[in-house]
Design brief:
Number of strands: 16
CATH class of the largest domain: Mainly Beta
Number of domains: 2
Number of helices: 6
Structural class: alpha+beta
Largest sheet: 7 strands, mixed
Shape: elongated
Radius of gyration: 46 Å
Strand content: 25-35%
Length: 326
Amino acid sequence: MTKNILVTDENGKVIGATYPKRAKGLIKSGRATEVDEGMIRLVSSGGAGAFSDALNASGQDPGVVFNHFIKEDMTMANRIDFKARGFKLVPECESNRGTRLVVTEAGENVECFELAEGGVKTEISHTEELQKDTDYVFCFTIKSRYIRLDMAECMVQVYFDEEGDGYTYPLDRDNKNRFKPTLCKKTEDGLLRVFELPFNSGDASKCTIRISVSNMTAWVYPAKDAQAYEALPDVDYEQWRQDAMHQVTRLVNDLGNSLGETLNGIGEFVGGAGDRIIKTVNDVIRPTAKEDDIVEPEEAADAEDIRPADETKPEEKAEPTEDKKE
């Protein structure tokens, strides 16, 4: 990409050139107005006056001062912004779950890519044309809601001829160095971060950008200026992560204690109920047992030892034999 947009001061004098993206940024911010497709004019409040002052004070070549004054030229020209429509789900990742959405973020409707709904691993990728031996910056915003914070992982890979031939940027990964965001904000349902990932194209004329997410749900969309997120509270990512992990640990401990107390209560209730049941059964059974022990043996003894009077037979006498009769 070349500087093919001429820039004039407020009087129409050409003072330099810039990149198309930078020209659009100057127009959008109100620092310049469009003259035609190949020219913009700086407005007095937007920098022409300051540029003239810098030029007069330095006495240098206008092109040198202009490039110094608009120092973001290279960044704007070689900035690769995330575009949901340009990314696709990676076929090799069988667990993919992602959807392109239009969401309202920072007061504007933007296209985003929702990744890893439910926390399953999801990968998306995009191929970008490059100029050789050129510095680039891949810019995007990611809003994350974590399923398993201790196992959550989000990383970006920028590779050239094949996977592994390039750079890896771990954004969420335990026990690994993490690439720091340029902006980190806390939201009602998670964390919002803006990233600018630098790389050099080297001998490559194109690159593949791959975003991988797991154990978290993420929404990825173009990065906005810092002013767009001013309403959200700032948060330090490392501190936020530690606090969140401690909160999870406390929650698990509290849940374990509560469950233990509940089980103890149930045990005491069951034990008490068991004692009451046993006592009740004994109270019912024991009187019956005593009655049987007392009554039945006595009835048996009476049946054996006592005979009615009418059952007693008189003693029979033996009749005399014939010899005794004679």
